[in-house]
Design brief:
It is a single chain. The chain is globular and about 70 Å long. Strands 1, 2, 3, 4, 5, 6 and 7 form a seven-stranded mixed beta sheet that branches. It has a four-stranded antiparallel beta sheet with strand order 8-9-10-11, with no helix packed on it. The protein has helices spanning 3-26, 29-32, 67-70, 89-92, and strands at residues 40-44, 50-59, 76-84, 96-119, 125-126, 135-146, 151-178, 232-235, 242-246, 249-256, 263-268, 280-285, 294-301, 304-310, 318-319, 330-337, 353-359, 363-369, 380-384, 386-388, 391-393, 408-409, 415-423, 429-436, 444-447. Strand 10 (249-256) and strand 11 (263-268) form a beta hairpin. The chain has four helices and 25 strands. It has two domains: 3-177, Sandwich (Jelly Rolls), CATH 2.60.120; 232-464, Neuraminidase (6 Propeller), CATH 2.120.10. It has 480 residues and is mainly β.
Length: 480
C-alpha cells in the first residue's frame, strides 16, 4: 500500500504542484518533450539486453488517472518496443515461459516519483514498477511482465510527481525458459479439508471468450493478469458469489460445486465510480435482510474515498458521500454490523451501521452511516499519535501508533479497530483495539495484558461473518 509514504507526500504536494505550475509557465511542455533515444527497438530471446533513454518528463497527477494511455507531451515519453518470440504466444506458452524485465532509473535533486508503464499490443496496462515511491537523488522502479505477448509494446515514462523535468534510463531483458511442471500432490486423506487455487485468467483479447479469460469492464486499464496490490475478499452468502478487490478491480467469482473439484467463472464487475485508487478496500455486509448482501467498493482519494455499493453482486453500483469528515489521508477501512443497544432510528430502515475509518497525520477517525453507506455522520477521533523519526508512535496511555487494522462489528454492536502498537496504563507498548460500545459515538483504547508488540503497525483481524462457522464449509483466502 502507499500507506505511510502517502502521508509523507502530503507535506510537500503543494510545493511540488507549485513548482510544476511555474515550470509549465516558464518552460511549456512542447519545449522539453522528446521521444526516447532511440525511439524504437526490437527485443527477442537471442537479441540480448537492450537500453535506451527517455526524454525529460515533469509535473504530474499524483494519482494514476491514465496519463500513460494517452501519453501527452511533457507528462509522458514513449518508446516503441517490438517483442519477438520464437513462436506465436498462443503456441509458445504451452510449453515455455518468458519474463520481460525493465530496470528504470533516474536522478533528481528534488523529491520525484517517475513511473514506468508497458502497454501491450492488446492495450492492457502493466505498471507502475516497484517500488512505486518518491525519492531524492537516485530513483528506480523495476517492472516485470510474465509471458508477454508478441508484437508492438508502448513503453512509457510518466511523471507522477516531478517538480522539474527529469530524464530516465531503461535496461530491458527478455528471458525464456521451459515451463515448469508441478508434481502431483499426494492424495488427501479421506475427509481431510483441502484447498484449491483459482487464479484469475487474463483479460480477453481478439477472439477469446470467457470462461478462459475475463471480459474487461468499460474503461478497464488493468494488466492482463489482474495483478494489483492490497487484496481484500468478500462473499455474498445469499448467492454464494465471492469477490476480490485489488487496485480498482472488483472481480466476481461464481463457483460450480456440482462438480469435483469445483470450477470458477470470473467476471470483471468493477464500479464505474472506482476509477482511481490510492488504497482499495472491499466489504460485504450480510445485514441486508430479505435481499442481497450489500457490496462496498472503496478507493482512497486524499481525505475521502470513492465509495460505492451494489445490492446485486456488482451488476449495478450507486455512489455515496465517500466518508464522514474529518477523515484521514491513508489506510481507509469499511465495515458494518448491528447497532449497540439502544439502536438509533434510521432514515431508511437499513438494519446495520456502516463505518468508515481512516488515518490522518496525527489522528485516526471513524464515521458512521445510518442509511446503508450512502451518507455519513462526522468523523470521531478514535486515538491520536505522533510522528517521530519517520515512525508513527503512541504518545500516552490509551493511544496507538502505526497503521490500524480493519474495523469490525460484533453481534452485540461493539465496534473494534485493532492496532498492534498501543500504550497501556504504564506506557508499555501492547497489542490493542480502539473500542466503541455506543455505535461509534465515543472510543476507548484497550490493550492486551502482557501482550508484546513485535512489529508495531501490523494490520490484523480478518473479516468474519456473524453466522456460525458450522453453517458454511467453503473457506476463502486471497493473494496477490
Amino acid at each position: 500500500m502507499r500507506g505511510i509514504r502517502f502521508c509523507l507526500w502530503i507535506s510537500f504536494v503543494v510545493l511540488l504542484f507549485a513548482s510544476a505550475a511555474v515550470l509549465l509557465v516558464t518552460d511549456p511542455p512542447r519545449a522539453w518533450a522528446q521521444l526516447g533515444t532511440p525511439p524504437s527497438s526490437t527485443i527477442s530471446s537471442s537479441s540480448g539486453p537492450l537500453a535506451w533513454d527517455f526524454g525529460p518528463v515533469g509535473g504530474g497527477t499524483v494519482i494514476n488517472v491514465g496519463i500513460q494511455d494517452i501519453c501527452p507531451p511533457g507528462l509522458c515519453d514513449d518508446h516503441d518496443l517490438t517483442v519477438v518470440l520464437p513462436a506465436p504466444a498462443a503456441t509458445f506458452y504451452q510449453t515455455m515461459t518468458a519474463k520481460l524485465t525493465f530496470q528504470y532509473t533516474w536522478t533528481s535533486t528534488l523529491p520525484t516519483d517517475l513511473d514506468i508503464f508497458a502497454i501491450s499490443p492488446s492495450g492492457a496496462d502493466h505498471g507502475p514498477g516497484s517500488p512505486d515511491n518518491t525519492s531524492t537523488g537516485p530513483g528506480q522502479e523495476n517492472l516485470t511482465v510474465t509471458d508477454p505477448i508478441d508484437g508492438l509494446w508502448h513503453i512509457r515514462s510518466v511523471a507522477s510527481l516531478a517538480p522539474v523535468p527529469t530524464a530516465a534510463h531503461v535496461a530491458v531483458t527478455l528471458m525464456i525458459a521451459p515451463r515448469p511442471t508441478a508434481p502431483m500432490p499426494p492424495p488427501a486423506a479421506p475427509g481431510a479439508p483441502t484447498f484449491i487455487n483459482y487464479p484469475a485468467p487474463d483479460d480477453c483479447t481478439g477472439t477469446q471468450q470467457p470462461p478462459s479469460c475475463i471480459q474487461p469492464s468499460t474503461g478497464s486499464t488493468t494488466a492482463g493478469e489482474h495483478g494489483a496490490g492490497e487484496p481484500s475478499i468478500g462473499v455474498d452468502w445469499n448467492t454464494g458469489k465471492a469477490f476480490i478487490e485489488a487496485g480498482n478491480h472488483t472481480l466476481r467469482v461464481t463457483f460450480d460445486d456440482s462438480v469435483n473439484p469445483a470450477t470458477a467463472f470470473w467476471e470483471d464487475q468493477r464500479s464505474l465510480f472506482a476509477r482511481v485508487s490510492l488504497d482499495p478496500i472491499m466489504f460485504v455486509d450480510d445485514g441486508h435482510f430479505g435481499g442481497p448482501n450489500r457490496l462496498f467498493s472503496s478507493q482512497l482519494i486524499l481525505v475521502t474515498s470513492e465509495l460505492s455499493f451494489s445490492d446485486d453482486d456488482g451488476n449495478t453500483w450507486l455512489p455515496t458521500q465517500g466518508s464522514g469528515q474529518p477523515a484521514g489521508v491513508d489506510h481507509q477501512t469499511v465495515g458494518g454490523g448491528p447497532y449497540a443497544f439502544p439502536a438509533p432510528l434510521t432514515p431508511t430502515g437499513y438494519p446495520h451501521g456502516i463505518y468508515y475509518c481512516s488515518q490522518d497525520i496525527v489522528t485516526a477517525f471513524c464515521s458512521r452511516s445510518d442509511d446503508g453507506g450512502t451518507t455519513f455522520g462526522p468523523g470521531v477521533p478514535i486515538y491520536t499519535f505522533a510522528h517521530v523519526n519517520g515512525a508513527d508512535v503512541p504518545i500516552a496511555p490509551g493511544t496507538c501508533g502505526g497503521l490500524h487494522g480493519h474495523v469490525r462489528v460484533s453481534p452485540d454492536g461493539t465496534v473494534y479497530v485493532p492496532n498492534e502498537n498501543c500504550f497501556d496504563a504504564n506506557s508499555l507498548s501492547r497489542p490493542g483495539v480502539a473500542v466503541s460500545t455506543d455505535s461509534g459515538l465515543s472510543w476507548v483504547v484497550r490493550t492486551v495484558p502482557d501482550g508484546k508488540s513485535i512489529s508495531p503497525g501490523t494490520e490484523s483481524v480478518p473479516a468474519r461473518t456473524r453466522r456460525s462457522q458450522k453453517e458454511r464449509t467453503t473457506p476463502y483466502t486471497s493473494g496477490m
